[in-house]
Amino acid sequence: MLGIAFKPESDDVRDSPALEVVRRLVEAGAHVTATDPRAIASARRAHPELTVDYRESAEETMRDADAVVLLTEWVQFRDLDPRAARALVRRALLVDGRNALDATVWADAGWRVRGLGRAAVGPGR
C-alpha cells in the first residue's frame, strides 16, 4: 500500500479510505505492507489492531509484492519510475485508487494497471 493518510501532505488518518482498504485486506487474510511519508505513526496509534508491516520507503514496501495499491497521491508516489518499480515486485499489478498515475506509462513498463472507473491496461488486461 502506497499511502495511508487521508490526503497528501498530512499525517491525518481519521476516516482514511486507505485504512479501510487495509483493514478489509487484512481481514481477508492478505499480508499488507504499507508506507506513507508522514502517517505511519498516526496509523499505528489510531489502529493498533491492524496487522500491517509498515516500511519507510515505497521501494521497501514494493519489494516482492504481488500487487501495489496507490491509496494517497503523494508526489513521491506519483513520481515513481515504473521500470525501476517493476524490478522490485514479484507481480506487476498496480491498482491506482486515486487515478493519479499515467496508466499508459505504467503499462508500457510492463504493469497491468487498474484504476477506479477505468478499463484495465497493460499485459493480461
From TrEMBL:
It comes from the Bacteria. SUPFAM superfamilies: UDP-glucose/GDP-mannose dehydrogenase C-terminal domain. Signal peptide: none annotated. This is UDP-glucose/GDP-mannose dehydrogenase C-terminal domain-containing protein. SMART domains: UDPG_MGDP_dh_C (SM00984). Residues 1-103 form the UDP-glucose/GDP-mannose dehydrogenase C-terminal domain. Pfam families: UDPG_MGDP_dh_C.
